[in-house]
Specification:
2 domains, 370 residues, Four Helix Bundle (Hemerythrin (Met), subunit A), mainly alpha, single chain, rod-shaped, Serine Threonine Protein Phosphatase 5, Tetratricopeptide repeat
Length: 370
Amino acid sequence: MRIFFVLLMCVGVAIAQESQPSLNLETAINVQGTDPVYAIELYNEVVEQSLVDRERNIAAFNRGVLLMEAEDLGAAEEAFRLAGRFATTAEQRRDAMFNLGHALNGGIDSSGQLMMDPEKMEEMIEALGGVERAFVDAARADRGHVASKKNVERIRKQIQELQNMKEQIEEQQESEEQQEGEDGEKGEGGEGGEGGEQGDMAEELQDLADQQREQAQESESAPRNEQQNEQQERSDEQEALSDETEEVNDQMEESGADQEMMEDLKEAMEAQREAQEALDRGDNETAAQKQQEAADALDQAAQRAREAQQEQESEQQEGQSGQPQEQPGEGEEPEIDEVAQNLLDKERRERERRQAYRATGRPVKVEEDW
């Protein structure tokens, strides 16, 4: 940056002192080394008041250089854009766009790269696109300007590396989300899968057993001279409970329940049928006995369902703990970290080179699309 600054100082001294903007421009050039804040104010007045594009170009450009040194990159960008607008020669246009590229590049937020955030990295790529356009404009203004071509190549390479890194991170995140979804499905198996069905069935069987036991107690305590309507009510209750048991039996047959559990259910259903017949003929003692047998069989079926649920859950846990699972992104993270570190190291070196920039060097091959 300083080499441009010195050259423009020499140009500025030669400006004719015919107007206030011209005097302000010469004063600003003389004091910018000792009082940059005052020089920036004077340059701003020249840009606003002068009617000569050449003066406005020099003022805007030098103002941009001072603002960059003050690390006010946003204002520096605006100044270099004005310098490019007021350029009267290809050289002025080149220098304005070249420094604009550096100002834009210095203002890029690289936090997305550091945090491996694809969205922020996309914003960084778009910002680098603006830097690339500025350097391309500089190369178009002076096709022999080696530094502009080198920077076009550098920025394009950085954009490509960022794009590759962003794609790698997105693939890694997609893999993690897919893995989480698979893990979630496995986890749901304990509640909504086969284990969950066994748990629900165990609860339903236990509820039937408890109801059957209550009915057995009612039959056992029923008086010998029980009213007809009371006896009919208990008979209806047994019939409803028998129907529920039959429905559960059908569900368990469809789900492929084990043979022992099905035998328990058949035993319960047979005892319920005999209890129903005893209630219909008024034999409460036999009814209570058969109802108790049905309750015991339902208890046994519920216990078997609970044991099946525990066994399935144990098998699922052993399968998840025993199966080696690749950690999300395992094997890829070192590559991504290495790319990120290379980019950061490269950016640091390039920043140091920009600070000590000198317009020397051999030409490099760049695809000239300007």
